[in-house]
Amino acid sequence: MGRFKTAFLKVLNRTLNPLTLRAAHSGRGPFSLVEHVGRRTGRTYEAPVILARVPEGFVTELTYGPDVNWYRNIVAGGGRVLYQGEWFPIVAVEPYAVRAGLRAFGPPASWVLRALRRREFRLLRVE
Asked: Which one-letter DSSP state was computed for residue 28?
């Protein structure tokens, strides 16, 4: 990961993430949580994300790419999702087609994702 991207993610973690974590815990607004265990530390972490509900689980768009820790941790060891106040264990992570991902988010989110040329969708399959 580039130095600028790493620095940007650190700033986000210290400023915006605390606000979005509170919103996700409240069950209001667009934010959900992905709870994951660190690959090296064994510590439990929470990452705020925006998810789209689909029959097989949740769709997420990897805005910062597949190298972010929360994503790497759930691929390596699973985790769970807090969505609208309810916890769901993640049982698998799978690529998700761009068209299907945009459709899952629906307007206006899909318009923003399309304008930003977002193409890294993943399915978080849950029980």
From this structure: -
